[in-house]
Amino acid sequence: MDGQLRTVKEVSDLTGVSVRTLHYYDEIDLLKPSCVGENGYRLYGEDKLEELRQILFFRELSLPLGEIRRILADPALDPERILEGQRQALDARKRHLERLIASIDQIRRGDKKMDFEVFERDDVEKLFDVFAGNMPEAMWETAVQEFGSMEAFRRNYVEKAFTLYNQPETKEILLESYGDKQGVIDAAVNPPGKEGVEKLQRQTDAVCRRLAQCKREGLSETSLEAQMLVCEYALAMKTALRLKNERQVMLGTADTYDNYEKASQVLDEQYGEPGLAAYLSRAIRNFYR
Predict the structure, then answer these.
(1) Which of 189, 224, 251 delimits the end of a domain?
(2) Torsion angle of alpha carbons 235, 74, 25, 5, nearest 10°?
(3) Is position 1 within any domain?
């Protein structure tokens, strides 16, 4: 490239990305033009074409646009680590498809139908690798002290997790929440980024403040206002955690406030409303009833 500026139409013809999509990327601050001409036309230089290539690559890996924007905007993020995480997700999906193909072949040979949703040991090993890659240094040191080596810690983790994930009750919750086994794996490989976590915190904080106000005003947890707030809370959780069905996560939140006094105390004190945690728990249970 010679450093020339290209119009939206020229970039569209060059890359195959529609003009409308390029306009949308500009509107959401994902790909801004290099400059805007006197005639109002968006103009793109070589550096922007390179950004667009990166965006298209990440889109091929099924990353959401908000995550791509965060990656491109944060120079502290390690591109190699991001790519490795995506490679692990693709590798897991590849093995999953290979098992499905093998199961189909078995069925065609007359074998009984296979359980496509069993968590294999290599699935759990992959989840451990992701977990270990995000462990703080202090946790590494603690694990080595307790188990003698990281490899011993890995064997212990995989064995226990393999058993746990394949228990009917646990598997049912995971599959209901994430849709299928691959959804569980993808969620672990691609956890919410800092931006997603902060957004979830803001949303749940706003909900809890308004729920506290509902309680102060004497509104029942079954009131329309309280139930709508639970709906907002649930949608925020579903989006941030990339859940197919948030029901189990929300009921787990209710269980926490019902069974752990410290958690309830912290919530009540945070919003200055005694009994708020119990009120939220009852509202959640009513919503899903």
Answers:
(1) 189
(2) 180
(3) no
Question: Encoding tokens for residue 145?
Answer: 């002290």
* pLDDT tens sequence across 99-126: 677 767 766 776 655 455 567 777 777 7
Domain that holds residue 11: 6-73
> Tell me: the pLDDT tens digits for 231-272?
999 999 888 888 888 888 899 899 999 988 898 999 999 999
Q: 19-70: per-residue pLDDT in tens?
A: 988 998 998 889 999 998 888 889 999 989 988 988 888 887 767 787 788 7
In total, how many domains does the chain have? 3
Rounded-to-integer distance, Cα 184 and Cα 248, Å: 14
Assigned token pair, 31:
């790909």
How distant is the alpha carbon of residue 127 from its chain centre? Answer: 14
Q: State how far the Cα of 52 lies from the Cα of 32, in Å rounded to an integer.
A: 10
Order of strands across the sheet with 42-44? 6-7, 42-44, 35-36
CB crowding 83-116: b at 16 or more within 10 Å, else e = eebbebbeebeebbeebeeeeeeeeeeeeeeeee
> Do 275 and 245 sit in the same domain of this protein?
yes
Ranges assigned E (strand) in the chain: 6-7, 35-36, 42-44
